[in-house]
Amino acid sequence: MLKSKNNRGFFLVLEGIDGSGKTTIANMLIKDLSNMGFKVHYTYEPWISLYVKVLKEEYSDFRDAYLDALTYACDRLIHLKKDVLKMLSDGYIVISDRYYYSSVAYQSSQNAPFEWVLTINSVFPEPDLAILLDVEPEIGLRRKTGFKSRFPEYENIDFLVKVRENYMKLVRMGKLVLINANASIENVYREVFELFMKKYKAMVGEE
């Protein structure tokens, strides 16, 4: 098995609208990387800390883009401190279903300033690799038919078009690597796996 000299973990983030295949791809990675001898840890955002629970259960009538962005940033800090950073320090490959890019894409689509959302998340560490699984909103919603969403308020075609546009802005900024997720899950997975291995091997070679 490839192994970094200082036992440093690898932080991989999968982004995209619901129906882009993030969870399916993550599960495929977990299986294959575990079989290869890697220590793998799966997580997701929002992490549903007390902050998010209070937002959804106690302050739902007051929700707006600014409150959502700040709440998710607090949740993210707890997530990093209690879960992600610890696992990375123990040498795990951490696969996160969403990270701060989701806040930028979604809350700026709710009319919070794009740069402001990016700024309040600028304190968080950049992952080793962040991938956008890009899918047409119509296809994503079709794939989600029959599945219960954690955030049904976001499942609107016009809204998701805006979210996708903001994700593409992050791609152009060099923060996300674009993969076409309209293709078959097998083809998408092959691209993700090859991209991960290329980045991981480069990290191992540099250390």
TrEMBL record:
It is an enzyme of class 2 (transferase). One of its GO terms (cellular component) is cytoplasm. Pfam families: Thymidylate_kin. Keywords: ATP-binding, Kinase, Nucleotide biosynthesis, Nucleotide-binding, Transferase. InterPro entries: P-loop_NTPase, Thymidylate_kin-like_dom, Thymidylate_kin_CS, Thymidylate_kinase. GO terms for biological process: dTDP biosynthetic process; dTTP biosynthetic process; dUDP biosynthetic process. HAMAP family: Thymidylate_kinase. This is Probable thymidylate kinase. It comes from Staphylothermus marinus. The gene is tmk.
